[in-house]
Design goal:
Helix content is 42%, strand content 16%. The protein is an alpha/beta fold and 340 residues long.
């Protein structure tokens, strides 16, 4: 069936197509007075024909697509879905749609996804990148086009950015474990890019040195960024002799793998070892045991990224903005005193 047009609406309402356009776009013009009765006739014709404006034509006329591109590293991590949810809420409130893509933790795919987004007709980009290999030439090209960009995670201060830094809370995690008597503390650094998660790994090392404890490289496992990687890393650590009395994991996704590995090895948390991680995904307080983790408001990051972007869309000349979302250590059931 042929899709109804503004001409069809105008014919049914007995008005000109320009009048239909004025009514639908809520425009007023003293040279084209539109009575309430005429407006109601147009709206009735729109409802009868089930007419919907052509979004592409509207964007060409206005220069705005009402679409925001969003690039994330991984569709499997609930932490990123919380960011997406917050961004989607803010975008919808402002009358925008999200165009979502993922790099699947692959540096080449991250570059290709960014290129694909840059070719789309969008009003701006929100980037949560996992790698530092993004082409500077491509970013410079987008900057030259004055395409508004917001970075989640303040790695590049040439753009507006928003995010959390876990450094202070990572130090608090170490103080919490030391107060419980732990000295043999392990760290699972499960990331797609080795530079990620340094705001957690470095405070771990600094805290050990400050306490006069050695940095034992056998207690630091660098691995991939999936739950399965966390499982394998935990098995490697927990079968050492002597094994660690506490394990810090770079995020909650990998902590799920640690909990499963402990169960398969016949170990209990926190009786045999304590466990701490980062992000506080929704499932963290429903795991067995409930997970001690560092919380960041991921939905606030998503909402704030959209709000920053729309401010940049509205004013390309405004000063660059940096927004830090605070973090908080949530002590639950997975940490306890050092085992005898």
């Amino acid at each position: 069936m042929k899709r109804p047009t503004q001409v069809d609406v105008a014919r049914l309402a007995g008005v000109s197509r320009a009048t239909v356009s004025y009514v639908l776009n809520r425009q007023t013009d003293t040279r084209v007075p539109i009575s309430e009765e005429t407006r109601q006739r147009v709206l009735a014709a729109v409802a009868e024909l089930d007419y919907e404006p052509d979004a592409r034509a509207q964007s060409l006329r206005s220069g705005s697509t009402k679409t925001i591109g969003l690039l994330i590293p991984d569709l499997q991590n609930p932490h990123f879905w919380q960011i997406i949810n917050g961004a989607n809420q803010a975008a919808r409130r402002a009358g925008y749609d999200l165009l979502l893509t993922s790099s699947d933790l692959d540096p080449r795919q991250e570059e290709e996804s960014l290129k694909a987004l840059s070719r789309r007709r969008i009003d701006g980009l929100i980037l949560l990148t996992a790698f530092t290999t993004l082409s500077q030439e491509l970013l410079n090209e987008m900057a030259a086009r004055r395409l508004p960009i917001v970075m989640i995670g303040c790695k590049d201060l040439s753009f507006d950015c928003i995010g959390s830094n876990y450094s202070e809370s990572a130090g608090e995690v170490m103080r919490h474990l030391r107060e419980l008597g732990h000295e043999r503390i392990a760290f699972i650094h499960g990331v797609a890019n080795e530079r990620s998660g340094l705001d957690r790994l470095q405070p771990y090392k600094d805290s050990l040195l400050a306490a006069g404890l050695p940095i034992d490289e056998n207690l630091i496992v660098h691995c991939g960024a999936t739950t399965a990687d966390g499982y394998a890393a935990a098995k490697q650590l927990l079968t050492q002799a002597p094994s660690p009395t506490a394990v810090i994991v770079v995020n909650d996704l990998l902590a799920r793998g640690v909990i499963r590995a402990a169960a398969d090895l016949g170990l209990f948390i926190p009786q045999d070892f304590s466990l701490v991680s980062f992000d506080d995904i929704p499932a963290a307080q429903y795991m067995t045991p409930r997970l001690t983790t560092v919380r960041t408001d991921a939905e606030a990051i998503g909402r704030g990224a959209v709000e920053l972007l729309l401010q940049r869309v509205g004013n390309r000349e405004r000063p660059l903005q940096t927004i830090h979302i605070p973090t908080q250590l949530m002590i639950r059931e997975s940490t306890g005193v050092v085992p005898n």
